[in-house]
Design brief:
heterodimer, A: mainly beta, Porin, two-stranded antiparallel sheet, about 55% strand, B: alpha+beta, outer membrane lipoprotein receptor (LolB), chain A, 13-stranded antiparallel β-sheet, about 15% helix, about 45% strand, globular
Chain lengths: ~425, ~250
């Protein structure tokens, strides 16, 4: 009822405010139907997403931008995450007692939600751009993976989907001749773990490059330790410090790009002792989870467009925090992957993408993600059809070919989705 | 006798042909005309697909330094609003901006082959600055009437080290004002294969520069065409260099 009243108010008052303030309203409506075979069951989940964007040029140098998302879910709205895990790992999941009953905390719930995704002010000053508030932050030159982007985790089956906003203060300082310094500050709950980023971007010949340093609070979740009172898993905060670089340019007629990030993980000794004691006192975990001292991520990519309009791209990704043998994927590794806490649990991967316009309005694309480390493969065909002037229809399939326990095994759920998007 | 000699000389001069321009000279004049110091235009682009459907886009474009820098930003429809393409160094450096993800992506020059929003115009057709001079050798192939204009017919053949995606162009240039009223584009690998034809209509003087207010690209292999209409156009206006940067792309 509250939601209905809120939206009724929004619909009535927003146009009036917009006329007065010359606010531009736009956005899209996106209904989607998704289906997957999980084990022996067929799951179907549909959603309706309404995104309303507001934008206003308050003065020559000040812009206000915001968007509000409202999403409803229907169908199978509770997914048991354990069903995606291999048998060997699934058995490691501890059962939790709640009021004397067995309780499964590993259920992903798709609840209706509405939230302010972005809301920011951008000041275009003479020598700098300053952006304050919730805003999209994206780093790196990679297509499927971005090691230097600590703010977002792309969905590998749909890497170009928009990312959420993050609360931050961002300053961009153009230095001329293609050079620019970007700094980002984002407050956290602990001053010691405040998020900072400093990046220098430049250009040499036909290559763009950047070097950057980041400090980011990073929480490692131990999915074996569930607190039924707080209804949450135990998390240990760490300080993730990154030195990174990226480039994009052209070599022998091919587009080439790369991205590298060296990650140094700092764990406060006192907090780690408290965590170890929590593990020892628990009945569900025998050893603390592995928190690496350091690791690196690397992306190298190449692309080309043929005369007949076919576009191809290949990207290689290495993550040394991840495992080269799938028998080493732990229960926590799977949970970190499925809850998007980690980009990968398999060490070496290749992403290949081919796209061709079938007609003026229909594009066909196909992505293949191959784990070199565990020899598993995901094939993701995609068809996009601009059905009317402002209406896109997208079909995406997911087919997995990997043995039990591999990252792209059919435990991940063969299926697909149909998505329409109507822009207004 | 003296008068007879003068009359003879006058007759002789009168019958001498005007000094003929070479293909290279004509193409330089075309290039000078097309690449003014700066330019701003607001245009619509309408694609008529093979199935007869229409898609209309509106965009703004800015160019500076005689076509060496180009920025294109879409304003309509909503689906592509604020998407931008920046081309520097005669389109040897290209960046695309996607407002939905706030990402700027550096593209290699092969991206110039890609069709602009599925139209019959490639990015190479849109912003290659001095491409007619740098990428092609021009020879005068004759004089012909085209689209009711007296024209030079100029043949442009791709130079060896050029990265153009056409093997040759045939251009009909209006003698009076050096507007390339028609251009035929031939396949990179098969120089006899005509891919498409560009025709300029409704030529008007804007700020002293003859400008085709309507351009139509006819696809010769598919039953489709793309037309562009200039809604607003200005030449030689002051444009800040900052416009042609990543900051400028994001507005």
């Amino acid at each position: 009822m509250t939601r209905i009243a809120f939206f009724a108010g929004l619909l009535i008052f927003l146009p009036l405010v917009c006329v007065a303030q010359q606010i531009e309203i736009f956005g899209y409506f996106e209904p989607q139907l998704m289906g997957a075979r999980i084990g022996s069951e067929l799951y179907q989940l549909s959603s309706n997403k309404l995104r309303v964007d507001l934008q206003s040029e308050i003065s020559d140098h000040v812009t206000f931008g915001a968007n509000f998302d409202y999403i409803t879910y229907h169908g199978k709205t509770e997914w048991d995450i354990l069903k995606f895990l291999p048998e060997r790992t699934k058995n490691q999941a501890p059962w939790t007692q709640l009021f004397g009953y067995n309780f499964n905390p590993y259920v992903l719930q798709f609840n209706d939600r509405q939230f302010l995704d972005n809301a920011y002010l951008k000041l275009a000053l003479k020598y700098a751009d300053v952006t304050i508030g919730k805003q999209q932050l994206s780093m790196g030159t990679g297509y499927a993976w971005n090691p230097t982007d600590v703010f977002n985790k792309k969905d590998i089956t749909d890497p170009t989907y928009e990312q959420p906003g993050h609360n931050a203060l961002r300053v961009d300082l153009p230095l001329g001749a293609g050079y620019r310094i970007t700094s980002i500050y984002a407050p956290t709950d602990d001053w010691e773990y405040t998020d900072f980023l400093l990046k220098l971007k430049g250009r040499i010949s036909h290559f763009d490059f950047s070097v950057l340093g980041i400090q980011k609070q990073w929480r490692y979740t131990d999915a074996r330790l569930f607190d039924p009172l707080l209804m949450s898993f135990y998390q240990i905060p760490t300080k993730r410090r990154i030195l990174g670089a990226d480039f994009a340019g052209e070599l022998l007629g091919l587009g080439v790009w790369g991205e590298y990030a060296y990650n140094d993980i700092y764990v406060n000794a006192t907090k780690y002792v408290i965590y170890k004691n929590a593990v020892i006192s628990s009945q569900s975990a025998s050893q603390p989870m592995n928190i690496p001292a350091n690791y690196y991520e690397l992306v190298l990519g190449v692309d080309y467009t043929f005369d007949f309009q076919t576009y191809i791209m290949v990207e290689y990704y290495r993550n040394t925090e991840a495992h080269s043998d799938h028998r080493n994927y732990s229960f926590n590794d799977w949970m970190h992957l499925l809850f998007a806490e980690k980009r990968s649990i398999t060490r070496d991967q290749i992403y290949a993408f081919v796209q061709h316009p079938l007609t003026d309005l229909i594009d066909f694309g196909n992505s293949c993600i191959y784990s070199i480390s565990d020899n598993s493969l995901a094939i993701i065909p995609m068809l996009t059809y601009n059905i009317f002037q402002n209406v896109d229809l997208t079909l995406i399939g997911n087919i997995y070919f990997g043995e039990e326990g591999a990252v792209y095994s059919d435990n991940m759920g063969n299926g697909g989705l149909v998505r329409a998007r109507v822009y207004f | 006798m003296k008068n007879a000699i003068i009359w003879f000389l006058l007759l002789l001069i009168g019958n001498l042909p005007a000094q003929e321009l070479t293909g290279e000279q004509i193409i330089h004049k075309v290039n000078d005309l097309m690449n003014q110091e700066t330019m701003y235009a607001r245009m619509t682009m309408t694609i008529i697909t093979t199935s007869g459907q229409e898609r209309t886009f509106e965009y703004e474009s800015w160019s500076k330094d005689f076509g060496e820098k180009n920025l294109i930003r879409y304003s309509k429809p909503r689906r592509v609003k604020d998407q931008a393409i920046l081309m520097l160094n005669n389109a040897d450096d290209i960046w695309a901006y996607f407002p939905r993800t706030k990402r700027v992506r550096k593209l290699a020059t092969h991206a110039k082959k890609q069709k602009m929003q599925g139209s019959d115009f490639s990015y190479e057709d849109m912003g290659s600055g001095d491409a007619f001079i740098n990428d092609f050798e021009a020879t005068l192939a004759g004089e012909e009437e085209m689209e009711d204009h007296d024209c030079y017919k100029v043949e442009l053949t791709k130079k060896k080290n050029s990265d153009s995606h056409y093997s040759r162009l045939v251009m009909w240039v209006i003698k009076e004002n050096f507007v390339p009223v028609t251009i035929d584009y031939f396949d990179e690998d098969d120089s006899d294969r005509l891919l498409k034809r560009l025709v300029q209509y409704d030529i008007k003087e804007i700020g002293g520069v003859p400008t085709g207010m309507k351009l139509v690209m006819y696809s010769k292999e598919e039953n489709k065409q793309t037309s562009m209409h200039i809604l607003e156009c200005k030449y030689n206006l002051p444009l800040d260099d900052n416009l042609f940067t990543e900051r400028g792309m994001k507005k």
